[in-house]
Design goal:
Elements: H1 3-9, H2 14-25, H3 41-64, H4 69-72, H5 74-99, H6 105-115, H7 120-127, H8 130-135, H9 138-153, H10 155-167, H11 171-210, H12 216-237, H13 241-252, H14 257-261, H15 267-286, H16 301-314, H17 317-323, H18 333-341, H19 347-358, H20 370-399
Length: 400
């Protein structure tokens, strides 16, 4: 009832409103909605909720990019994704290792992998806002959206090498599995699956539409159906479902025909809004506020605050200030600074951290070894950083 006032006058996105409402409805306030009360099912439900919302958002970004955008802007996108992510992953791991004593550097790399990707849901909410449309150049908004989609799927290799080094007895075995499973099977095969499905869907729908077998409304409805079908196929095969969804969306819109048929339709925007709001209500209620002070794990509020400040300063800004000369879409150091600051963490971080817990042993209390320390502390650290990231994006957009 007051969404226009909040978004267009106060410049506060549905991300912040949804999270705040979730906190109010959650166990620490009204206690109406408590995802953590579901016991052993909480982790799996959280994983699948984040997966569906992320995949839909990534597919949407792929579809909404201009015709053959990824091919035309491959150089800038590659520079913004690979070296920037790698730099942030390594330096954030150093910070985590220095601040949280019980975690060794390999475990710190696993936590840092969850915080490496830029969240596409928060990104879309900010760069698609009225202020951004008026004041941020179109080329910069598009490259930030494409980067947020690509690097979410690219978090898999960073996480997998950390987990393999943690759980495998031999580094040789860990590196071999990382190359064969983490890269060849998950990333490359997942991207190929999404691309093939997107191209096949695009051709099939075009034939059906030209022959009058499908109306415009049903054509638009396939937007959501293909996103869910893609992640269903990719996750069933154990490949990178996030990259598959982004690849499918990009392939669907490659020739521009799908975009032309769905132009001026609001169905996809409504679906995105509903899913995003619901997801952040879930995250707000899911936040483990009582665990932010866990001295037995070496976690205290002041350590979490210090880590958050360090992440904001070093995770992306130094790398992009050095590399922006190789990114044609960034025209100067001010845009590089903006792009470096603009690295929200949200749904993607929660998803990757929950995925990591599925590959780690259930911790005892107190933890008995490094694997259990990582399993016990990973999501506490990640959830605090996500909360801080949501709050700082609110202050940033409001001040803008």
């Amino acid at each position: 009832m007051i969404s226009l006032l909040i978004k267009e006058r106060l410049y506060i996105s549905e991300v912040v409103v949804g999270t705040a409402f979730g906190v109010l409805m959650g166990p620490h306030c009204a206690n109406i909605f408590d995802p953590r009360s579901w016991g052993d099912h909480t982790q799996q439900i959280t994983l699948e909720v984040m997966r569906v919302v992320l995949a839909t958002g990534l597919f949407a970004i792929g579809v909404e990019l201009p015709q053959s955008y990824l091919a035309d802007h491959a150089k800038g996108l590659l520079v913004m994704v690979v070296p920037t992510m790698a730099f942030g992953w390594l330096v954030v791991a150093v910070a985590i290792f220095g601040i949280f004593g019980p975690l060794n550097y390999i475990s710190a790399l696993a936590v840092a992998a969850c915080l490496t990707p830029t969240d596409p849901i928060i990104c879309a909410a900010i760069v698609g806002g009225r202020y951004a449309i008026k004041h941020v150049p179109t080329n910069l908004r598009r490259i930030l959206a494409a980067e947020s989609a690509a690097n979410d799927g690219m978090a898999y290799p960073f996480l997998s090498i950390s987990i393999y080094l943690t759980v495998e007895s031999s580094r040789r075995v860990a590196i071999a599995k990382w190359f064969l499973v983490g890269w060849l099977y998950e990333v490359i095969l997942g991207t190929l699956i999404g691309t093939v499905m997107g191209i096949g869907f695009s051709k099939l729908m075009r034939i059906s539409h030209n022959r009058g077998f499908i109306d415009r409304e049903s054509y638009v409805a396939q937007y959501l159906a293909l996103a869910l079908f893609t992640i269903g196929v990719a996750s069933s095969l154990g490949t990178d479902d996030l990259l598959a969804a982004f690849a499918a969306g990009s392939a669907v819109s490659w020739d521009g025909y799908f975009n032309m048929q769905t132009e001026n339709e609001v169905f996809s925007s409504v679906i995105d809004l509903v899913l995003n709001c619901g997801c952040f209500v879930y995250i707000g209620a899911w936040m483990p506020f009582s665990d932010f002070n866990s001295p037995e794990l070496g976690i205290t509020p002041w350590r979490l605050v210090v880590l958050f400040i360090v992440i904001i300063l070093i995770r992306r800004i130094p790398a992009l200030l050095v590399l922006y000369h190789w990114v044609p879409e960034i025209s100067g150091w001010k845009e590089a600074l903006f792009s470096g600051h603009f690295g929200p963490m949200g749904v993607g971080a929660v998803f990757v951290s929950t995925l990591a817990l599925n590959r780690l042993p259930k911790p005892n209390s107190p933890p008995q070894n490094q694997q259990e320390y990582l399993a016990a502390s990973l999501q506490i650290i990640v959830s605090f950083i996500v909360l801080g990231s949501i709050l700082i994006r609110m202050s940033f957009t409001s001040s803008s």
